[in-house]
């Protein structure tokens, strides 16, 4: 492949440059070039949410967003939330509440929840669940994940006081 | 205590536990972590027997280079067999090391104890720890010469809900096969034939080789794989090839595969009989015939494997359920000596049975052979996952019950009809790996033997009712004639067989005017079975059995998984408008000894939600010989908004052996839903899934 022009992104607050075909879906850039592999491939069609990241504050399916569309954008992944000191409440709550079985879907769910709670910090459980309907979990851990997100929302509200 | 079977192949203490110089307790298990939390529970068992801090345990799952061979991690046997092997081995290590300490300290061994890995002499610290002692002791000795597990009342760590050792990494890290990126990594993608019998007629291999980023193209018979420098290049090249490949399909498929299974005249086999022939027993006859469609495992992450050839050696990193059997199956497929192959387990997405994990490992081995010295990572597409993985079999189960004048069931006839379960790699003398069937020298799957009832049964799993019924005849008919590749999926036949038995129990109770709980209890003579039924109903706080509301209903389901494992009863409430909505689930489970109660609750909650999804929504679609389902749009599963409130009560029995529990909820949940819908609508839906269409059909018949 011809050497592509560099594309600039801000990944978890840090400016980065990648050289990849601008048509490459963001997911493969994150995983293959930027070692942000907690964004995971699930379906390649935006139908399962495993690849969800936050782009300029909004949840996005990175598997079907071409790189050129997000040039210059701020991308947040779960690696960024985990690296915060202390870690983001969503990460802490999911782990504390053992809200995982295989965990494959979780980074996408955490990022979808992050974008949603940033907009709607006082959302009800039903509203949180509805916001996650684009994210599938096959192990059946939904119940615990919702508990963890409610818990995180409470911590975030507390921290914002 | 029974000798744990895994000790036969790995008899020595050092096969299972070792004391590393860094003060870690190394535990080696032949089981694999599938997302169910078994490694945490196994580590707890070892830490408990040796009285070491669980944080110092480093556990390794199945790896053909260094762990015992425990075959497949399947059938909810990790703790029942693997855990008891580790318990025996760790207890034997304790005995050997304390004997060594007694010698060194010139003390009677009875005066010695262990606390946090340190030896205590009548209480005070003896300034010796297990690692000091291990340096001078011989642990290459048989477990069975020394094993003496603690009595239940002495356990401290086994029985506690310790947090999973692997969750943080799964949530924020890169723990999966999909994430492996050794130096020199290349990416491979298969171009799957559309059906098991398909043959490649034409494909422009030179054109494929010339696609951007392509490093190698592999063709062996009808197997085609493409290897590229980047993942996206491999995907694009494989898509290019899939759009151009011409295939020839051979054979016919029935228009309605599940109907064909129900109508099959292949021979049935009687698997269990008791008392008189049910056909000769007089009384009122009640019958049912229920079906389920073919199901998809539907792991969120598709199947993946990493393979590398180095000289004549092949190493595979795989999320298989059985690294040792996979090694043998790959050797069979490639005509290699199994000694030249290593298979190392590495986590994948959630595993609910025999999915594509093994198949993709052979795909990766075939592709990596073209680029020796370069590791090749192969990840299936979502369409591959739906269309090329082994399927959960379609089934039909018929039950005929005879009720005597005493209003009790006097006899029961069950015939479970199913496409085969249990077609795991290496079984029945064939690799049972998809690509092996396509090779120039093909090794197609052998005729299935399903799973014998002595091993828990496949088609006939839980077809034997758990109720005290004097006259029984239970049969299974394994239907081979339907041309789709099926194998074991969580609970196997137990999902539909329990649906059949438990919905018929409610039909009979309703017909004779008995309460469904009382009717079940009248047929249950096992106190533990009665206890879970009573507990599940009690958890509803009186709601079960009272008015559920307009268009709503409560339902109950009970089974003891495999008739030998955990006891589980579930009470659930549904509301039916156009679709069925589950609002509440109350479950009670008796897992025998509970090593990690929260892990059991997590598995049971997961089983409930997954079984609800299968039962309410799921069905694969076919187009002739091919699976037509390609995306999640074609195969909706339960979403966050559709998930009910769930309460799981564990009834631990520390004095009893542990029972496999992670599949126990599937049958009872399905049955509870069927019965709740029956109560809500007064109509019995016999064909799963319980969709709007199925309900309309049931209401109009």
Number-wise, the strands of chain B total 26
Per CATH, the architecture of the largest domain in chain B is 2-Layer Sandwich
User: Average pLDDT value of chain A?
Assistant: 96
Helical segment tally of chain B? 18
- Structural class estimated from helices and strands of chain B: alpha+beta
- Could you tell me the mean pLDDT of chain B? 97
Poorly predicted runs of 5 or more residues of chain A: none
Distance between the termini of chain A: 52 Å
Structural class of chain A, please? alpha+beta
Q: Element order, helices and strands of chain A?
A: EEHEEEHHHHH
The CATH class of the largest domain in chain A: Mainly Alpha
What general form of chain A does the structure show?
globular
- Share of helix of chain A, binned: 25-40%
State the CATH architecture of the largest domain in chain A. Orthogonal Bundle
- At the fourth level of CATH, the homologous superfamily of the largest domain in chain B is Aldehyde oxidase/xanthine dehydrogenase, molybdopterin binding domain
Give a description of the structure.
The complex is a heterodimer of chains A (161) and B (701). With 161 residues, chain A is of the alpha+beta class. Chain A folds into two domains: 7-77, Ubiquitin-like (UB roll) (Roll); 81-160, DNA polymerase, domain 1. Helix content of chain A is 38%, strand content 13%. Chain A contains six helices and five strands. Chain A has a five-stranded mixed beta sheet with strand order 2-1-5-3-4. In chain A, strand 1 (7-11) and strand 2 (14-18) form a beta hairpin. In chain A, helix 3 packs across helix 6 (142-160). The radius of gyration of chain A is 16 Å and the shape is globular. In chain A, 61% of the residues are buried. Chain B is α+β, with helices and mostly antiparallel strands. Chain B folds into three domains: 5-162, 2-Layer Sandwich (Aldehyde Oxidoreductase, domain 4), CATH 3.30.365; 177-249 and 297-388, Aldehyde oxidase/xanthine dehydrogenase, molybdopterin binding domain (Aldehyde Oxidoreductase, domain 4); 395-421 and 457-700, Aldehyde Oxidoreductase, domain 4 (2-Layer Sandwich), CATH 3.30.365. In chain B, the strands form seven sheets. Chain B has a seven-stranded mixed beta sheet, with helices on both faces. In chain B, a hairpin with a 2-residue loop joins strand 24 and strand 25 (626-627). The longest helix of chain B is centred in the first third of the chain and has 28 residues, at 78-105. Chain B is globular, with a radius of gyration of 27 Å. The relative contact order of chain B is 0.11. The model of chain B has no long low-confidence stretch (mean pLDDT 97). The interface between A and B is large, with 55 and 60 residues.
